[in-house]
Specification:
Layout: H1 2-28, H2 30-50, H3 62-92, H4 95-101, H5 106-136, H6 144-168, H7 178-192, H8 205-211, H9 215-227, H10 243-264
Helix pairs in contact: 1-5, 2-3, 2-5, 3-5, 3-6, 3-7, 3-9, 6-9, 6-10, 9-10
């Protein structure tokens, strides 16, 4: 009984140590750091500067409407894309094969990866919020309820996108191709989820229907409900924040992503035995 308890207790400790190693390795790769943080930040700064106008019946500008959506896109980038690329690289250079044969629980490896993207996602949110506040006049909410909404949307979004990134890492045949393999679906989802449209209701109906099947659209909508006033609701598709549906869809993707991981994850590269 004592041994079992110690084994169970060691998984979080090993996962924490693994997470620290992953963070150190990530921040040593300066090009990866710059690309991960710069892409959403540069897109927000450029797109926000190019669009203008105030929505009728509200004081919200087009640039302010864009900020929460880009926060969702930034989180998807640091979780889905970053995890897919890093795990594909670990598989390609033999790291996964060595870890599989080591006396370390596999769950500790995945816990370390999730801790890494969680920290990076928090930093990404802070950066994008700073740009939104300094460049476009976005105000931080003062109501505790809005921050509570931010918390569960953030956690469900990070979890679901992380699982999907882990599962999608198996699509890349090598570490070199992983960037292209992960970024293509990410960019497609960003477009059909209304990330680059202000407002999202301007999207064509077929794209709205397809985008509603995926978590990115609901993450963006959840964050808009946090950082934008309710006077902007006429610009939403259903004129409602739909918090219940947002939580349900994100939770379903967390469960579905986990099942995909269990079914598709590979410890070895293509052609290896």
């Amino acid at each position: 009984m004592i041994v079992t308890t110690g084994a169970i207790a060691s998984v979080p400790v090993l996962g924490l140590h693994r997470g620290l190693l992953e963070l150190k390795a990530f921040f040593r790769e300066r090009d990866a750091v710059v690309f991960t943080f710069a892409l959403p930040a540069v897109l927000l700064a450029l797109l926000g500067s190019l669009i203008s106008g105030v929505y009728e019946g509200s004081t919200v500008t087009s640039a302010q409407y864009l900020v929460p959506s880009m926060i969702a896109a930034g989180i998807a980038s640091t979780t889905f894309v970053n995890l897919g690329v890093s795990i594909a690289a670990d598989r390609d250079d033999g790291t996964l094969k060595r870890l599989r044969g080591a006396p370390v629980p596999a769950s500790a490896y995945f816990l370390g990866k999730v801790l890494m993207v969680l920290v990076i996602s928090v930093a990404e949110v802070v950066l994008l919020l700073a740009i939104g506040m300094l460049m476009f006049g976005v105000d931080l909410p003062s109501e505790p309820g809005r921050w509570l909404t931010f918390g569960w949307v953030f956690l469900l979004g990070v979890t679901g996108c992380s699982f999907l990134g882990i599962a999608a890492s198996s699509l890349a045949r090598s570490g070199r191709s992983a960037g292209a393999v992960m970024n293509l679906p990410y960019l497609v989802l960003a477009f059909i989820s209304g990330i680059f449209y202000t407002p999202v209701s301007a999207l064509p109906e077929p794209l709205l229907r397809v985008g509603s099947l995926f978590p990115l659209k609901w993450m963006a909508q959840g964050f808009r409900s946090v950082f934008l006033p309710d006077t902007i609701l006429p610009q939403e598709v259903t004129r409602s924040w739909e918090h219940g549906r947002t939580a349900l869809v994100l939770a379903v993707w967390c469960i579905g992503g986990l099942l995909l991981c269990l079914r598709t994850f590979r410890w070895r590269g293509h052609g290896e035995r």
